[in-house]
Amino acid sequence: MKRTPIDIADALERMGDDRVFLRELLDIYEEDLATRIEALREAVAGGDLKAVEQLGHAVTGSSANLSLPFLRERAAAIELAGKNGDAAKSLANIDGLEKEFQRLRDHLRENPL
After folding, report:
1. Whole domain around residue 70: which residue ranges?
2. Is there a smaller number of Cβ atoms within 10 Å at the N or the C end of the chain?
3. Given this model, what pLDDT does residue 1 score?
4. What is the mean pLDDT of residues 23-45?
5. Considering its fold, how many domains does the chain have in total?
């Protein structure tokens, strides 16, 4: 079974079955996540693992709200790595977050709402 980066049924239920609204939120999410990934990398490079934890927490929440389970999992791992002061694990999970983010973008391009 192919794992899809978004649980469309759950996301639509959360949005009152409004595909246009969901698409708008996903567009905002995509723009925001690109900025947050850059901020995460900068925080790790600067040794600010508290910021890594906070950014990871924010991405965890927004990913969960949009029914993006794999992005949520990666963001939660980033949050935990930041909390534990583990820069190497933070970077590895940021790389994974970027890969999952690309999977989401590819999926949405191939399967428009």
Report:
1. 8-38+47-110
2. N
3. 58
4. 97
5. 1
